[in-house]
Design goal:
The chain has three helices and five strands. By secondary structure, the chain is of the alpha+beta class. The chain has one domain. β3 and β4 form a beta hairpin. This is DUF3567 domain-containing protein.
Length: 98
């Protein structure tokens, strides 16, 4: 898990697959102890609404392309926030602390 962005309005976290842990477990033949991420995804938390959205699959691939474009073009914070706001409009899940 890598935090990519943190502002007053949004947090973006990149969730990575658990391939290293799975490989280590396969060596000692212990069964998985919990859910594992099969592929990467992004969690976008809208701090203003207290809701989050998790992007995986084709949504994650589109968001990854957006991140690569931001790295090339160096947008303003306002441009990043506007793009995140569009994704945050998909948010349905309230943020829950574990």
């Amino acid at each position: 898990m890598h935090m990519l962005y943190d502002s007053e309005s949004f947090v973006v976290v990149h969730m990575l697959p658990d391939t290293v842990e799975q490989g280590a477990q396969a060596l000692d033949n212990t069964p998985p102890t919990g859910p594992r991420l099969a592929r990467h995804g992004f969690e976008i938390v809208d701090k203003r609404s207290g809701k989050e959205v998790y992007l995986d699959g084709s949504w994650a691939e589109m968001f990854q392309e957006q991140i690569l474009a931001w790295q090339r073009d160096t947008p303003t914070q306002e441009e990043v926030e506007d793009a995140l706001d569009r994704y945050a409009s998909l948010a349905q899940n309230p943020v829950v602390m574990h």
